[in-house]
Amino acid sequence: MSDHVLVINAGSSSLKYSLVDALTGEVAASGLAERIGESQGRQVHRGTGGETETTRKIPTHEDALRGAIEAFESHGPSLADTAIAAVGHRVVHGGSRFSAPAPVDDDLIAEVTDLVPLAPLHNPANLEGIRVARRLFPDLPQVAVFDTAFHQSLPPHAYTYAVPSAWSEEHGIRRYGFHGTSHSFVSQEAARLLGRDPAEVNVIVLHLGNGCSASAVRAGRSVETSMGLTPLEGLVMGTRSGDVDPAIPAYLMRELDMSMDDIDRALNSASGLKGLTGENDFREVLRLRASGDARAGLAFDVYCHRIRKYVGAYYAVLETLDAVVFTAGVGEHSAEVRAASLNGLQRLGIIIDDDRNTAQSTQARRISPDDSEVAVLVIPTNEEWQIARETLSVVRR
Ligand code: AMP
Questions:
Q1: Is domain 4-146 annotated with CATH 3.40.50.300?
Q2: Full-prediction pTM beyond 0.90?
Q3: Is residue 333 within 6 Å of ligand 1 at its C-beta?
Q4: Model confidence over 291-326: pLDDT tens digits?
Q5: Could you confirm whether 147 is annotated as catalytic?
Q6: Which of 201, 240, 241, 358 is the most exposed place for a label (fewest CB within 10 A)?
């Protein structure tokens, strides 16, 4: 029986896919279609025949997936020969309803549709990916893997906002957390790297990519996380502000006559690194900072200071700490961010070895001395593999 899972991540104007061996993590093929619905789209497929790229109009997500199926047939590997076990879909918001991956059926689609107000940009796109895949792969089981599910283990005192209780009871206003597949994968890998059972270790995971989030994971279960009702809360991100005083929107409405939509857009798309420097790509921020740009220098300091605050807070939440783990684009690649975020925390048992930190590697590794009380680790995240594993666990249950 094949252990291959076709992992689909549908965005509002994009569709990414990978064909992953759920047992080994090996990627047989991957690709993406982007600028769906625009006058000119782009499709990329990486398979047995190497990488191919085509530009053409891709009117809908269905056209995108059809194009991917054709690319599999013409550039390999043939889907018919691979015998896919299931299709796994990334779904951003599972609300309080989903604490685990779930088989796709009409009820699940209705429930994910009910959650659209909580994720108005993401859930409709994820649903479109599900509908299209069900049409084009009617004989394959389909599974939804939720970004929020791993954080459903947060205790009430961590997920409750101190607001009128009717807001949460009647409208679901509470902290959900996101990037769950990444936090789950990386915390398990951390235990493996330490040679210990996940049920025995407490870790702080710092997922620093375009979106950034921190989590505190106790004995394999998430007990705190920095993103909230939406992915806006918490760390400084590429274009999102992270934590701000919640009175700022009211101030802007009153004093600058800004609309709620404009403020929402500014906090999500024109803040974070982009708001501070004009650039949302961290490599550009580093380049500007190295050239002496004062704004980029400040942005770097704000970014690392926020991480440091969360590390301290989550250490207090966990009480004992075995590892701090850096992952995702910035976390995996920027030795400067890792050093600036954690330097000076020796009294907490957190020490970075400079040579290990700056050594070039793409492998999971320890960057603290072997005998430090808290291990500092760099672990490449692999959300596609985690989605494939969780998908297979549902279909083989
Ligand atoms: P991700 O969302 O995980 O793909 O991460 C994207 C972010 O990682 C972008 O801000 C990139 O600029 C950043 N990134 C990727 N490679 C590097 C690098 N070598 N050094 C610093 N940042 C990087």
A1: no
A2: yes
A3: yes
A4: 999 999 999 999 999 999 999 999 999 999 999 999
A5: yes
A6: 358
